[in-house]
Specification:
Layout (H helix, E strand, L loop, with lengths): L1 E2 L2 E7 L2 E4 H15 L3 H9 L2 H11 L8 E5 L5 H10 L4 E6 L2 H13 L6 E5 L12 E7 L8 H10 L1 E12 L8 H20 L2 H13 L3 H11 L2 E8 L4 E7 L2
Parallel strand pairs: 4-5, 4-7, 5-6, 7-8
Antiparallel strand pairs: 1-2, 2-3, 8-10, 9-10
Helix pairs in contact: 1-8, 2-7, 3-4, 6-9, 7-8
Length: 252
């Protein structure tokens, strides 16, 4: 979302940058962390991110033989869970704007023998290269906050859904327990960048990721954005006291 007071700029963490530069800056972040992305996720969340992702997929509206688009699919962990849901007759298309993240995910899944039912496409969530009504389900996990224009991306997600299809967003959100917020801030801005420096050799990228969480729309605001994009029956569910939230909406 652009800064309404400065329409030619948008936020990159706590910095305001020209709109046409954000995609490049975000790309540099994820190219830098691609090789250590999953390891860092385990360390940052003490492994809880795997529980969040499993619940996200387990509660998705999908069926055997369905066709699913997983945006910001990165290293393929969500896609693998989705493939188990749609079965051998289904298909999961993994879309990510970052080629390095896609290569890490594709190579990892191939090395583990997970090839059938998975397709890999480098694409921009704001301009999806798929016809209208191509998918039964569209998911994006921990990726929407990095999109330059979230409203455009949400409309694209709606466009590629079939009537009755569901879109699901798993994203860091606003912590609901006030007593927990100082501890969460300490972890985000003190612990996380140091872990990034020690494990991934990149403190700055993980400082940006912490800042990007705080700049992401909170629960009710994101629900309103999904409704404005044209989704029906929108709602959300908090997990872990709002550290993350699952948003869902349907194409009428």
């Amino acid at each position: 979302m652009n800064d309404p007071d400065h329409p030619d700029t948008t936020h990159f963490g706590y910095r305001d940058v020209p709109v046409d530069e954000k995609q490049k800056l975000v790309g540099e972040v994820f190219s830098s962390v691609a090789q250590k992305y999953d390891v860092m996720n385990d360390l940052m969340s003490l492994g809880i991110h795997r529980v969040w992702k499993r619940f996200f997929v387990a509660t998705a509206q999908t069926r055997r033989g369905g066709r699913v688009l997983d945006l910001a699919g990165g290293t393929g962990d969500i896609a693998l869970l989705l493939r188990d849901r749609v079965g051998e007759a289904g298909e999961v298309v993994v879309g990510d704007i970052n080629g390095d993240m896609l290569r890490v995910g594709r190579d990892r899944m191939t090395d583990r023998g997970h090839v059938r039912g998975l397709s890999w496409v480098q694409c921009n969530a704001q301009a999806l290269p798929f016809p209208d009504g191509s998918f039964d389900l569209v998911t994006i996990a921990f990726g929407l906050r990095n999109v330059t224009d979230k409203d455009v991306a949400l409309r694209e997600m709606l466009r590629v859904l079939r009537p009755g299809g569901q879109a699901r967003v798993l994203e860091f959100s606003q912590v609901t327990a006030r007593w927990f917020r100082p501890l969460y801030d300490f972890h985000s801005f003190k612990v996380l960048p140091r872990l990034g420096a020690m494990i991934a050799g990149d403190e700055g990228s993980y400082r940006y990721l912490a800042e990007s969480i705080r700049r992401h729309p909170p629960q009710r605001e994101l629900q309103t954005m999904m409704e404005a994009a044209g989704f029906a029956r929108c709602g959300y569910r908090n997990l872990s006291s709002g550290i993350v939230a699952i948003h869902a909406g349907y194409r009428a």
